[in-house]
Amino acid sequence: MYAYVARQAIFDRAKEVIGYELLFRDGQQNCYPNIEPDEATSKLINQHHLSTELTDITDGKKAFLNFYRDTLLYRFPTSLDPLTTVIEVIETTEVDAELIRACKHLHDLGYKLALDDYDFDTRWDPLFPYVAMVKIEADERSLQQLPGLLERIRHRPVKVVVERIETNVQFEQFLALGVDYFQGYFFTRPEVMQRKDLPVMKLNLLRMIEISARHDFAMSDMNSVLERDASLAFKLLRYMNNPANYQRQKISSLLHALNYMGQIEVKKFIALLAMANLGDSKPDELLTLSLSRAKFCQAVADYRGDEQNPPKGFLIGLLSTLDAMLDLSMQDIVRRLPLADDISAALRGESGDLRRYLELAQAYEQANWTQTEHLAEALAIPADLMAVKYQQAIQWADELKNTAI
C-alpha cells in the first residue's frame, strides 16, 4: 500500500463520481512516485499488484494519475491497467518530439491521456491527437476562453474537466458552458444557505443523531423515533448486519444489538443511518466523505485513548458535512442539535482536539502534506500510521456505502 496518497473525486454532469485523481506525497508535484530506470522490469512484473492497489483506493473507478516527463519517456505508466487509469501530463512538461512519441505509444496501447492544468497555449497542439481530456482551472480566464476551446475540439473525442470547483455557483457556470467533468469540493458546500423548516422525516433523523451523541443510551427514546417510520428500523438492521463490519452473528433487533455489540457501536450505526438518509438528494460522494472522516477521526481518538462513550471522534467526522446535507449553516444546525459542548464547538470551527482531528482528515483529503505533519505533531500521533488509517478509512467507507445504502 502506498504510504501517502490522497484522492479527489471527479464528477460528471449529474454529480456522479467517474473517477478519482490520486495525489502522492513521495512523488514530485504529487505525481506518481518516480521509479529508477533499472527498476522498470520489476515494476512491470508487479503490474497486477500495482493496479489492484490503485483500484482499492478508487473503489474500482478510474484512477487519474499525474506523471512527469521522465516517467512518461520510460513508459512507466504501462505498469498500470489502461482500462482503469488516466495518465495526466503535468503542465511543466516540455513538449518535444520525444514526448510526442511517448504519448502516441501510450495512446496506441489503449491508455487515456489528459493534459493537466491546460493553459490554452498552442504548444500542446501536437498532443491533441492522443489526448482524451483536458483539465482547466475554475477561474475567470477559463470562463472567457472555454467557448473557443470547445469549438476547437468539437470534432475530436476530447472531454473537458474543470478543476478546483469550490462553490455550487461555479459548478453551475461551467455546467452551462458544456463542461463534461468537475473536480473540487463544491459538493461539500450548502447549495442555498437559508433559514428553512425541515420536513418531519429529517427532524426524526436529527433526533436519532442527538440520541447517538448522548452518554447514556435511551432505548425508549430511540424506539419512539423508529416507530414513526418503520423503514428506519429495517435500514438500521441492514447497516448493523453489513459485511463491511464483520459481524459474526446476525443482529435481529435493537435490543439484540445493544446486548451483542454494546452501546458505543450501536450509537455509531444510528448516526450512520441518520446521515445516509439526510443526504438522499445529495451526491453519494458526500456520504462517502462523511463515512471516511468518521472512521479516520475515530482512529485518531482510539490512538490517543479518548473516552469512547459517546464516540466523539466518530461523530465529529460523520457530522462534518451536515451543512451540505441540509443546506443550512453549521451554526444553525448546532443550535438545533443538543450535542455535547466540545462536539458543537468543533463543528462550529472552534479550536480544540476534536477540531484538529477533523482538520487532519481534511488535510489528507486535500494532499496538504505539510499540514498533516503539523497536525500530527500537535496531536502527538505518528503521521505514517495516520496515513495508513486514512487509506483504511476510505476503503471502509466505500465498502459500507456499496453494500448497505
From TrEMBL:
Q: Which InterPro entries match?
A: dGMP_Pdiesterase_EAL/HD-GYP, EAL_dom, EAL_sf, HDOD, RNase_Y/CdgJ
Instruction: Please state every residue range assigned to the domain named EAL.
Output: 1-204
What are the residue boundaries of the HDOD domain, all occurrences included?
198-385
The superkingdom listed in its UniProt entry is Bacteria
User: Mind telling me which SUPFAM superfamilies this protein's record contains?
Assistant: EAL domain-like (SSF141868), HD-domain/PDEase-like (SSF109604)
**Any Pfam family hit:** EAL
The name under which this protein is listed is: EAL and HDOD domain-containing protein
Q: Which organism is it from?
A: Pseudobowmanella zhangzhouensis
